[in-house]
Design goal:
By secondary structure, this protein is an alpha/beta fold. About 20% of the residues lie in helices and about 30% in strands. The chain is built from seven helices and 13 strands. The chain has helices at about 15-20, 65-70, 110-115, 115-120, 125-130, 180-185, 195-210, and strands spanning about 1-15, 30-40, 45, 80-85, 105, 135-140, 145, 150-155, 160-165, 170, 215, 225-230, 235-239. The strands form three sheets. The chain has a six-stranded mixed beta sheet. Strands 7-8-9-10-11 form a five-stranded mixed beta sheet, with no helix packed on it. Strands 12-13 form a two-stranded antiparallel sheet. The longest helix is centred in the C-terminal third of the chain and has 18 residues, at about 195-210. The radius of gyration is 17 Å and the shape is globular. The two termini are about 15 Å apart.
Length: about 240
């Protein structure tokens, strides 16, 4: 299996203090917006689809590159067999609809939460990007979505947030959004739907992934890395 981190863009939408109340800094929180490309003998799997093309309200000035990144990897939009959404936030669904042969995988609890009439009325990105999709597979528990590739529920950031496992690799979406949350799993990210559940999920999965020495791709960390024990918490180590 080959694995690549594809950055759709880099940019900022909040200060560190606005995103993480425990960080006393008004500096902009500057992040990559990552997707992951997994290629096996049986399938080409894309995890998340970035913020998508302009015009858009979210990070409107960021220059996006997902389709170019795929092309550099030798993958055309028509070659993607499966798109897995770790969750349905605006920076993870932006290129939805661009992959004509893909099946889209979403957790059923995220679908119920985000695709209700009330949510769609408030979230135009879902009306524009997700609602028109014709091939959506809604999953619940741990599920194999392609040979050797499975999703695992990791709730809290959203009700149906998932991580993707393939061998020793974990693509974790927004399970951990900032390295502070490795040192202190209770550190709140304001975009978590349920901060208590998110912290408990982080605490459990960070420990498991560190013990496994799993390779990790996160939605907003650069590169592929691992979680290493550091005092009472953990730290990020890029390969």
């Amino acid at each position: 299996m080959s694995v690549e981190v594809l950055s759709d863009c880099e940019g900022t939408f909040a200060t560190l203090r606005e995103a993480f109340p425990a960080i006393q800094s008004d500096a902009d929180w500057w992040i990559p917006v990552n997707c992951a490309l997994l290629r096996t003998d049986a399938a080409t799997v894309l995890v998340d689809t970035g913020i998508g093309p302009q015009p858009r309200a979210f990070m409107p000035d960021a220059e996006v590159a997902l389709l170019d990144e795929l092309a550099r990897a030798g993958v055309g939009a028509e070659d993607v067999d499966v798109v897995v959404h770790t969750h349905l936030h605006i920076d993870h669904v932006g290129w939805d609809g661009s992959f004509p042969n893909a099946r889209y995988v979403v957790h059923e609890q995220d679908w119920a939460y985000f695709m209700s009439d009330a949510s769609l009325a408030e979230r135009p990105h879902l009306r524009d990007k997700v609602a028109p999709l014709e091939r959506v597979e809604r999953v619940s528990g741990e599920t194999e979505v392609a040979p050797g590739v499975r999703v695992q529920p990791a709730p809290g950031h959203t009700p149906g947030h998932m991580i993707v496992r393939a061998g020793d690799l974990a693509v974790i979406g927004d399970l951990v959004a900032h390295e502070l949350q490795l040192a202190d799993s209770d550190a709140v990210f304001v975009n978590d739907v349920d901060s208590g559940v998110a912290a408990a999920t982080r605490r459990r999965l960070i420990g498991e992934l560190a013990q496994e020495e799993a390779r990790v791709i996160a939605g907003h960390f650069r590169g592929v890395g691992r979680f290493l024990r550091a005092g009472k918490g953990f730290r990020w180590a890029v390969e």
